[in-house]
Specification:
The chain is α/β, with parallel strands linked by helices. The chain has eleven helices and 15 strands. The strands form four sheets. Strands 5-4-1-13-14-15 form a six-stranded parallel beta sheet, sandwiched between helices. Helix 6 links the parallel strand 8 and strand 9. The longest helix is centred in the first third of the chain and has 12 residues. The chain is globular, with a radius of gyration of 18 Å. The relative contact order is 0.17.
Length: 262
């Protein structure tokens, strides 16, 4: 395995479930990885597509599992969307479909939220979704204003299986309006651009580490950064052989990756 390129990485973007933990149990090798990253003067940041929670909610979730992390080391598709809005639609009035947590994320970023006469509409993963919210969103989208979604996932994994995610809502809006949104989260390059804006590092010094080819690894390719597949979650080597999406590196888990860092 050619590892010289790996040595130039200064920040690792970490998927969470299947990569750093599984269910509610942190992998033992995750602690080994964090220690090696710190010893070698590198950084890490958790990256999640779930926009129903903000970084403080994920900080608390990790704390309950026994891992302490600063909120600045957690990056969601919701925060990425606020960066995109402030870059491309500064000062614009936004109609947001999202949780209270996502609403607070937008307010902290200075995004102006309105219920009437918005300049654009944003769809997040809203676990308190109502028909009235959907109806209003469809009206605004049909009127032709810019329409953005935080991420594309159709289902969100939970302990008992799956719950419908934002992709199902996107399909509802498309069925009513014929319009698809601009999507920010994995696997799209916009979330990589948002990370670069936040951390101030060049692309060649950032790597995405995850267990899913179609989100984590595809994001690496789309965003022009190094992609690292770990086999601790969803994907097997047989899956890689059958896929058009190919990672730059494959490791058994975060511990195996740590062993290759100098």
């Amino acid at each position: 395995m050619e590892i010289e390129k790996l040595q130039n990485i200064r920040m690792f973007l970490l998927d969470m479930d299947g990569t750093f933990y599984l269910g509610n149990q942190i992998f033992d090798c995750s602690y080994t990885f964090v220690k090696k990253v710190e010893e070698t003067g590198r950084e890490f940041m958790f990256l999640t597509n779930n926009s129903s929670k903000d970084r403080f909610a994920y900080q608390e979730k990790l704390r309950r599992m026994g891992f302490e992390v600063a909120p600045q080391r957690i990056f969601t598709s919701g925060e990425a969307t606020t960066i995109y809005l402030n870059q491309h639609f500064p000062g614009k009035r936004v109609y947001l479909v999202g949780t209270d947590s996502l609403t607070r994320e937008f307010e902290r970023a200075g995004v102006q939220l309105v219920e009437e006469e918005p300049d654009l509409a944003v769809l997040g993963f809203d676990t308190g979704l109502t028909y009235q919210k959907l109806w209003k969103l469809c009206d605004y989208v049909r009127a032709g204003i810019p329409y953005i979604a935080t991420h594309p996932d159709f289902n969100c994994p939970i302990e008992t299986g799956f719950m419908p995610d934002i992709g199902a809502t996107i399909a509802f809006v498309e069925a009513s309006t014929g319009v698809l949104p601009k999507v920010i989260g994995k696997p799209h390059k916009e979330i990589v651009d948002a990370v670069l804006d936040k951390v101030g590092l060049p692309r060649e010094q950032i790597a995405m580490v995850g267990d899913r080819l179609y989100t984590d690894i595809a994001m690496g390719a789309n965003g022009g950064i190094t992609s690292i597949l770990v086999l601790s979650g969803e994907t097997t080597r047989e899956d890689v052989e059958k896929s058009d999406i190919q990672p730059d590196y494959i490791f058994e888990d975060l511990g195996d990756l740590a062993a290759h860092l100098r």
